[in-house]
Automatic annotation (TrEMBL):
Full protein name: Phosphate acyltransferase
Domain of life: Bacteria
Location within or outside the cell: Cytoplasm
Subunit annotation: Homodimer. Probably interacts with PlsY.
Species of the source: Calditerricola satsumensis
GO molecular function, a single term: phosphate:acyl-[acyl carrier protein] acyltransferase activity
Length: 336
């Protein structure tokens, strides 16, 4: 169980230095940015000490390295990996939260292994039946939208979706500063009678709950910012996530092809480059850092596997805000 930080002691964030497509360089670079920004926070890079230490001649006083001799690969079977590699950087990072040695943890590594380790070593919060992976989707009309669940649990029951809605609302209000967040239920139509039995039962629970429930939301409207919290089962949410990522990649790929095909297009592209950069920044997951594992009894942030230094820096900011704004306490009070 996660131990509360003693009053007066510095906040400590544990980061899996070996997880992710660009580890350990991107992880180290992102943490160093955060360390320069927050001298009052201690950062622990967990990974192969010889490899990590060799990346830099000198280290800030608020960054230290904890040696982990093993690493979990992206394609390893999650449960087997965390049981066989207990001295891996991912497992040791999570264990630091469980042991009270860190106030929050971050990994860009194997998503399934990270979720399994968080469940095994940190555990669920009292009153929460299923945790949820909750990334922020970029939107055109607002700060974004928190979508949960996107894969922590493939199957769900109506009460799980209600718990997701409550946790998501607390997180958005606490970390993003959104007052009275709008909650939408992802469905195949906006009418209350739409969907399968799970959606219909979940709609009834959400309608009766003390939430700003706006009703059903269709997938095509998610990126338009119609709601601040989008609730769905993990199977549907993961399909939505992968479809959105693939669509964004395809659009930018086609734009590059079209704007570099002819010299006239290249000239237009040069003039529009600042606008394209702003567009890419608005739709880039790196701006939000990572996805919290809500319902876990400790702040655990899952960074995107392809995170660069900027994404890791923002994931650290996210973890710090999670701790400073006592998101765990706020969620606990809703289920107490």
């Amino acid at each position: 169980m996660h131990s509360e930080r003693q009053e007066g002691s510095p906040m400590r964030i544990a980061i899996d230095a070996m997880g992710g497509d660009h580890a350990p360089q991107a992880i180290v670079d992102g943490v160093l940015r955060a360390a320069a920004e927050r001298a009052d926070v201690e950062f622990v890079l967990v990974g192969d000490e010889a490899i990590v230490r060799a990346l830099r001649a000198t280290w800030p006083r608020n960054v230290r390295i904890r040696h982990a001799p093993e690493a979990i690969g992206p394609d390893e079977e999650p449960v087997r990996a965390i049981r066989q590699k207990k001295r891996s950087s991912l497992v040791m990072t999570v264990q630091m939260v469980n042991d009270g040695e860190a106030d929050a943890c971050i990994s860009a590594g194997n998503t399934g292994a990270y979720m399994a380790a968080a469940l095994l070593y940190v555990g669920r919060m009292p009153g929460i039946e299923r945790p949820a992976l909750a990334p922020v989707f970029p939107t055109t009309g607002s700060w974004g939208a928190l979508v949960l669940d996107v894969g922590a649990n493939v199957d769900a029951r109506p009460q799980h979706l209600l718990q997701y809605a409550v946790m998501g609302s607390v997180y958005v209000a606490s970390v993003e500063g959104v007052k009275n967040p709008r909650v939408g239920l992802l469905n195949i139509g906006t009418e209350a009678t739409k969907g399968n039995e799970l959606m219909k039962a979940a709609y009834a629970l959400l309608e009766q709950a003390n939430l700003n429930f706006i009703g059903n939301v269709e997938a095509r409207d998610v990126l338009a910012g119609v709601a601040d919290v989008i609730v769905c089962d993990g199977f549907t949410g993961n399909v939505l996530l992968k479809a959105a990522e693939g669509t964004a990649e395809a659009i930018f790929r086609v734009l590059r092809e079209e704007l570099t095909g002819r010299w006239t297009h290249k000239l237009a592209a040069a003039l529009l480059r600042p606008a394209f950069r702003r567009l890419k920044a608005r739709m880039d997951y790196k701006e939000h850092g990572g996805a919290p594992l809500l319902g876990i009894n400790g702040p655990c942030i899952k960074a995107h596997g392809s995170s660069d230094a900027r994404a890791i820096h923002n994931a650290v900011r996210q973890a710090i805000a999670f701790v400073e704004r006592d998101v765990l306490g706020a969620i606990s009070r809703q289920f107490g």
